[in-house]
Amino acid sequence: MRGGAPRPVVALRRQVGRWGLWVALAALPVYFGIHDLTHGYQAAAAHGTTATRHDLTQLGFNFVQGVSNGSIWALIAMGYTLVYGIIELINFAHGDVFMIGSFTAVGIWGSIGLGLATGPIGVIGGLVVTLLISMFVCGSLNVLIERVAYRPLRNAPKLAPLITAVGFSFILQNVGLLWRGGSPEGVTDLLRENDTVFQISGVVVHRADLLAVGIAAPLVIGLTWFISRTRPGRAMRATAQDPEAARLMGINVNNTISLTFLLGGMLAGAAGLTYALYETTVWYFQGFEAGLIAFTAAVMGGIGNIRGAVLGGILIGCIQQMSDSRLGPQWTPAVVFGYLILVMVLRPRGLLGEETREAG
């Protein structure tokens, strides 16, 4: 093969990139599973004592918590991937919109009197109202950011909107700082999140786990249906592929981009409510960490790809839980970003592939 690598070498690289990645992703749970079976782990026993167990219960619990935690990252990651897919902008303010969603949710359920004494029907009804208001507030805020900060810079060099996004991130952080102070604030555990709902082979599923998946799953399904089946969704896909051609076909590109920001903000609002109930703690700086993790999930899954954002979020959630419980929280960021680097090296377009103009 003149002027390039021989065909067998190219084929070998392709196979390594395809299967080596999945082997690497499976390495961590397989190693911990074998370790639990052979060496055992310490688990709580009767009368406050501990006992050594040789089974996969702890690994199963890591996966349950990873999926529930990853569902929150997936909601935020979808907002990142929607915006990048349509205007190729990293909306660094998105994580702080999520933070505003948490603060709004806590403020709303406090103002309508939700508390530990509220009955189940009252809690469910109040949280549905709170969810809708949080999604509306964050969606409107995201549209405002797009109209004020990004639309005037649509044809400017890419660095200009990027810096503007960073600036809006700091503005929203200071809004949160003035709103609820600079220290982490505990909130009412409305759902009694650590109550056990059921067990599967010893793996405990808590209310918080069902909450996260129960909010995220319908939103993911609804967004996927909206983008693939509705006329505005098709307009979004056309604009993402070629804005000029979409404009020539009669699509209002500005309104379509605003709709994209609206949807991304609404997802951030839903994630904000879920996070507040899941963690029972809110903080003005929570958006920075969550935004970084969620953007990592979007890149890992394939930027611009909705399914990739969901997959990336759940994978990172599982990696975090395994690392937190086995290696220690201090190692978790290094493990997560180590996996991100591995994915980028073996599959530069992400696990499920990019869906952007450059990627085709």
Key features?
single chain, mainly alpha, globular, ABC transporter involved in vitamin B12 uptake, BtuC, two-stranded antiparallel sheet, 360 residues
Please characterize this protein's 3D structure.
By secondary structure, the chain is mainly alpha-helical. It has one domain: ABC transporter involved in vitamin B12 uptake, BtuC. The protein contains 12 helices and 6 strands. The strands form 3 sheets. Strands 1-2 form a two-stranded antiparallel ribbon. Strand 1 and strand 2 (50-53) form a beta hairpin. Helix 4 (120-150) crosses helix 9 (253-279), helix 6 packs antiparallel against helix 9 and helix 7 crosses helix 9 (253-279). The radius of gyration is 22 Å and the shape is globular. The model has no long low-confidence stretch (mean pLDDT 89).
Short description:
This protein has 360 residues and is mainly alpha-helical.
Explain the layout of strands and helices:
Blueprint: H1 7-38, E1 41-44, E2 50-53, H2 57-87, H3 94-111, H4 120-150, H5 159-180, E3 185-186, E4 196-200, E5 203-206, H6 207-229, H7 231-241, H8 243-248, H9 253-279, E6 281-282, H10 286-301, H11 306-326, H12 332-346
Antiparallel strand pairs: 1-2, 3-6, 4-5
Helix pairs in contact: 1-12, 2-6, 2-9, 2-10, 2-11, 3-4, 3-5, 3-9, 3-10, 4-9, 6-7, 6-9, 7-9, 10-11, 10-12, 11-12
